[in-house]
Amino acid sequence: MAEEENRHAGEHFEAGVEHSEEHNSDSPAPPMNPESNDPEKNREAEQEAAQELPSQAAAVHQRLRIDGQKELSRDSMALLWSAIAAGISMSFSMVARGLLHAHLPPTDLGFLIECLGYTVGFVVVILARQQLFTENTVTAVLPVMSHPTLSSCWHLGRLWGVVLFGNIVGAGLAAFTFKHMPMFDATTQAAFVEIGEHVMANTTGEMFSKGILAGWMIATLVWVIPSADQAKLWVIILITYVMALGNFTHIIVGSSEALYLALSGNASWEDVVFHFGLPTLAGNIIGGTFIFALISHAQIRGDLEAQRERKQGLIQRRHPIRAGLKKGGQAARNTTQKDAGEDRSG
């Protein structure tokens, strides 16, 4: 009985629930009162729950993992529509940067100001909580790392597939609209083409390598946001601005630019898919999942073990009689087995 309770205590921490005699072990309690519509009360409840965790990193990990569990359980059609909206919203980065590029002089200062436009799409998508593929390379992966099963891996694959497809569809719809509807003057359209050509000028190896760093930076952004509070906007702008300065390749923003280039006849569809798409996608996944998420999960494994040991000690203090009975019962079984062995040898 004590061993079973100890096992449940360790499992409850990884499920984001504190072990208590008042809660059923098969019905995990939510981290905050779902009936409360008061943001201040919810924030206080989160802070109290975080104080019971062994470290701030574990608190962030738990919050992101709970968000990931919710995303993994969402309906596919809901994910798809949110992903399409995100793909369209991410095209705002190309629009804002193109407009700035068209109206700024081609100087170093002009480039520094132009890169601010790149941040617009990320601000809209993240604050609107739309489904962005590169966000899910961290958030949705943490539950799978905590409980790696075939079912969880299947749900992760479904989420990734639906969100990536929706993002690219949204980016394609935006690029088609910008190209074929009279929205922008010739100077701005030329700026869109120039931005796309600048992306496609990377070699395949550069697409992949820069994609790794872009995936890492977006994963860092996702990890930092829960602690940013009122500074979320500035965190998003800061990290994505650095991405623009470094010309790091992002699969969704780059899709808007590359698809616009292909629709303009300045790039082949083969180059869009094989020269840009696949290498950038692989780099983003590796940077966001296999590097950042793995390291972030690994850093709290020691905290998990320490918390589990403390919970086990707490259970033993709460149920000393059960623990004593189990010890006595085990000792009696050992004595009986020993006597039986002596009788056989005699």
From TrEMBL:
It is found in: Membrane. One of its GO terms (molecular function) is formate transmembrane transporter activity. GO terms for cellular component: plasma membrane. The chain crosses the membrane at residues 78-97, 109-128, 159-178, 207-226, 233-253, 273-295. Its main location: membrane. InterPro entries: Aquaporin-like (IPR023271), For/NO2_transpt (IPR000292). Residues 1-60, 322-346 are annotated as: Disordered. Residues 1-25 have a biased composition (Basic and acidic residues). It comes from the Bacteria. This is Formate/nitrite transporter family protein. It comes from Kushneria phosphatilytica.
